[in-house]
């Protein structure tokens, strides 16, 4: 039986499609109370008197808590530390604001009542005296000398530098061509279909957090080590089905701390469900940086050096994974899949009066790939090179290739991806399609861009197999699904390796009481890290079973061969379930695996633009990608298409806007923040053509972030190609109709 490589339909879809999935909001614990958060309406203000008297006296109110009640708790930690030029400044972040609020939505008080309506009513009656302070919401402006300071130490948290600056300077001095661009990676709201929610319980001296989260072991450890300062065995963190996360559910939030504290304080469970408005202003955002990037080329168009100067936004506080998105993560992918002998990056990170930034799908890799692909298109325009030929000429072709910032790409098919996507997208017919669009008064453009993902996330992962008396084999892995299809793909791996029907496997995840260790979700790591751990567990279980099978077959272990679910010696055999009933084959491994894999590909998009309104219509989208060995092609393509849709959103519609004076979030609902709709998307054609990696025994590379890494530059490339006849050479994301129309209008004035 072969399961790896088969497009098996998702086993978990049955419960989702029939409405029997279980999410936090579906669960109610006997005796639970309900919490409501009192949040700051100001972006920056000093907190004066907090009057809770009227609210406390309201019916069904159990308690109202402010910072003075929880002053003994530790602060929320920043889990990501980076080798910066000077020590990174991580200001304190208590679960409730202490003395000041620093962004709209900052939690000030926590109200607990018998019912949701009582909690909401009481929260509205809490009176907080604020003294408004000047705010700054623009990242670059926050580093200006006279900017309002969020912290006594100022607004700069760190400066990160990596690469050979002298080599880069020398290459630029000798270059035949130098291209420079200034680009913005717009701040994004992740907006998963399920907003954040949790239930906190305290019983027999132990905490229990039931939460819509995606890295339960990390959250447990931070709660134990940093906040409650207790043994981690005293805290259980578990998650049911999770309705999307894209990275922003991996970190610790103030509400998780308060739910556990209140459960202990009140002696009863406490539940909180954030509404969509809260999600916009209090859940971590993604991206938010501005870069000045320069590319040096020789007279033949060979890349010589890349220099990148970035100002990265952090928001008001340092979220758990925030620093990685502008430092180590983009560094691993900087320069994309191209040969660039010298690279230097210089990053300054700033606090602003906005929601904190954390890892969001791709987390640094979209930014790095966007830079190099925009630079290549600019070099093509300014220096007279063909943009397709320029990519082919500089693509990595010899492996292993050690990139200038230290990562080593072990394999790939970079130039072949370009050729493949041009053929699949019907590139030869583009000229005719452009002519037809022009006849209709429209502008048509074709964009092409490559991407290089670096997949691993946290190193190392655990896996466990449990063989039950019921004949089922339970798979426990420390990674976690929040929509990716792990309940199908992990059983596919185990069924293939153990030679058993896929129906005999059950996947268990996201419970620190069940799973000893795990590094959770993030970095497209699940199949690379978790799959490798499962492979190791299966191999261990088979080796453990061989002596037992030899005894049952009355032979020596060295004569026993395992294949297709059976142990055989000559013409005698015994199947794996029989061996497992005789002796426990339960196996647990912690697999040490620190290497990175490099998913890669090339995408092509075609857009049509109405010059009278600036409306951009995405007409075609095609990708040819290399994810190594593919466990389930259908799930892989679905993952990539989902990421592409998010990348399209960043490129065309999604715009997080804060008022520069008041600091109010002006795009704080779906009335003003536009996610791409089904009508905005054409068929997303993705072809898989992989080169298996030797970085793990399965040969997989990971695919979860790729679409969001590839799509933004592909879309912008197509838009600029359409506008090129008018002389438009730059546009920032999102390319909304207003921005495109303004670019067209200004270009016509210059003509």
In short:
29% of the residues lie in helices and 24% in strands. The relative contact order is 0.12.
Q: What distinguishing features does this structure have?
A:
751 residues, alpha+beta, Aldehyde Oxidoreductase, domain 4, seven-stranded mixed beta sheet, 29% helix
What layout of secondary structure does this protein have?
Blueprint: H1 13-17, E1 33-39, E2 45-51, H2 53-56, E3 61-65, E4 100-101, E5 107-113, H3 116-125, E6 127-132, H4 139-142, E7 156-163, H5 165-174, E8 177-185, E9 188-189, E10 197-203, E11 206-211, H6 216-227, E12 235-238, H7 254-266, E13 270-273, H8 276-282, E14 285-286, E15 289-297, E16 303-315, H9 328-333, E17 342-351, H10 365-383, H11 387-394, E18 401-402, E19 408-409, H12 414-424, H13 430-439, E20 443-452, E21 461-467, E22 473-477, H14 486-498, E23 505-508, H15 526-553, E24 561-563, E25 566-569, E26 572-575, H16 576-582, E27 587-591, E28 600-609, E29 616-626, H17 633-652, E30 684-688, H18 706-723, H19 737-750
Parallel strand pairs: 1-13, 11-12, 16-17, 22-23, 29-30
Antiparallel strand pairs: 1-5, 2-4, 2-6, 3-5, 7-17, 8-15, 9-14, 10-11, 10-13, 15-16, 18-19, 20-28, 21-22, 21-27, 24-25, 25-26, 28-29
Helix pairs in contact: 10-18, 14-15, 15-16, 17-18
């Amino acid at each position: 039986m072969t399961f790896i490589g088969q497009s098996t339909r998702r086993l978990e879809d049955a419960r989702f499609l029939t409405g029997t999935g279980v999410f936090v909001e579906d669960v109610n614990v006997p005796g639970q109370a309900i919490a409501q958060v009192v949040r700051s309406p100001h972006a920056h203000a000093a907190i004066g008197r907090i009057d809770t008297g009227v609210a406390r006296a309201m019916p069904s109110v159990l308690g109202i808590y402010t910072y003075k009640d929880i002053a003994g708790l530790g602060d929320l930690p920043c889990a990501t530390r980076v080798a910066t030029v000077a020590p990174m400044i991580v200001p304190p972040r208590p679960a409730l604001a202490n003395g000041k609020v620093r962004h709209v939505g900052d939690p000030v008080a926590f109200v607990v009542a018998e019912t949701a309506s009582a909690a909401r009513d009481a929260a509205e009656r809490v009176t907080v005296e604020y003294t408004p302070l000047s705010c700054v919401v623009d990242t670059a402006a926050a580093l200006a000398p006279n900017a309002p300071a969020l912290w006594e130490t100022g607004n700069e948290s760190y400066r990160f530098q990596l690469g050979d600056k002298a080599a880069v300077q020398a290459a630029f001095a000798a270059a035949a061509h130098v291209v420079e661009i200034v680009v913005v990676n717009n701040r994004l709201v992740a907006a998963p279909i399920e907003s954040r929610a949790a239930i906190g319980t305290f019983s027999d001296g132990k905490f229990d957090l039931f939460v819509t989260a995606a890295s339960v072991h990390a959250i447990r450890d931070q709660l134990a080590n940093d906040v409650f300062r207790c043994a981690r065995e005293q805290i259980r963190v578990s998650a049911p089905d999770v309705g999307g996360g894209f990275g922003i559910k991996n970190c610790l939030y103030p509400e998780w701390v308060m739910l556990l504290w209140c459960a202990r304080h009140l002696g009863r469970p406490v539940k909180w469900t954030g509404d969509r408005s809260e999600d916009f202003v209090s859940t971590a955002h993604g991206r938010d940086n501005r870069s000045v990037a320069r590319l040096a080329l020789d007279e033949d168009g060979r890349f010589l050096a890349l220099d990148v100067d970035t100002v990265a936004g952090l928001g008001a506080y340092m979220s758990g994974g925030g620093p990685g998105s502008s430092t180590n993560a983009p560094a691993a992918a900087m320069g994309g899949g191209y040969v660039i002998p010298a690279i230097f990056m210089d990053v300054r990170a700033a606090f602003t009066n906005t929601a904190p930034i954390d890892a969001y799908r791709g987390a640094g890799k979209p930014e790095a790939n966007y830079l190099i692909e925009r630079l290549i298109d600019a070099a093509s325009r300014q220096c007279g090179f063909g943009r397709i030929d320029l990519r082919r000429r500089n693509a990595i072709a010899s492996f292993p290739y050690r990139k200038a910032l230290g990562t080593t790409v072990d394999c790939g098919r970079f130039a072949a991806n370009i050729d493949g996507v041009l053929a699949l997208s019907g590139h030869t017919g583009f000229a005719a399609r452009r002519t037809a669009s022009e006849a209709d008064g429209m502008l048509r453009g074709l964009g092409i861009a490559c991407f290089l993902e670096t997949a691993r996330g946290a190193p190392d992962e655990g896996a466990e197999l449990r063989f039950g008396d019921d004949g089922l084999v339970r798979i426990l892995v420390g990674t976690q699904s929040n929509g990716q299809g792990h309940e199908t793909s992990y059983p596919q791996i185990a069924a293939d390796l153990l030679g058993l029907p896929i129906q005999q496997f059950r996947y268990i995840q996201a419970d620190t009481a069940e799973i000893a260790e795990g590094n959770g979700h993030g970095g497209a790591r699940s199949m690379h890290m978790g799959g490798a751990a499962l492979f190791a567990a299966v191999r261990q279980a088979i080796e453990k079973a061989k002596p037992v099978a030899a005894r049952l077959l009355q032979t020596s272990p060295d004569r026993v061969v395992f294949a297709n679910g059976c142990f055989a010696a000559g013409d005698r055999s015994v199947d794996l379930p029989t061996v497992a009933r005789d002796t426990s084959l339960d196996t647990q491994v912690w697999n040490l695996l620190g290497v990175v894999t490099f998913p890669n590909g090339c995408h092509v998009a075609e857009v049509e633009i109405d010059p009278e309104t600036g409306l951009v219509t995405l007409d075609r989208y095609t990708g040819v990608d290399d994810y190594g060995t593919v466990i389930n092609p259908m799930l892989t393509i679905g993952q990539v298409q989902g990421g592409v849709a998010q990348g399209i959103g960043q490129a065309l519609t999604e715009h997080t806007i804060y008022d520069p004076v008041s600091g109010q979030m002006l795009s704080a609902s779906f009335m003003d923040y536009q996610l791409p709709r089904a009508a905005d998307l054409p068929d997303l054609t993705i072809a898989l053509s992989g080169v298996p990696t030797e970085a793990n025994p399965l040969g997989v590379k990971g695919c979860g972030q790729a679409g969001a890494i590839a799509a933004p530059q592909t879309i912008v490339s197509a838009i600029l190609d359409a506008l090129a006849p008018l002389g438009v050479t730059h546009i920032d994301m999102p390319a909304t109709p207003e921005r495109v129309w303004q670019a067209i209008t200004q270009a016509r004035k210059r003509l």
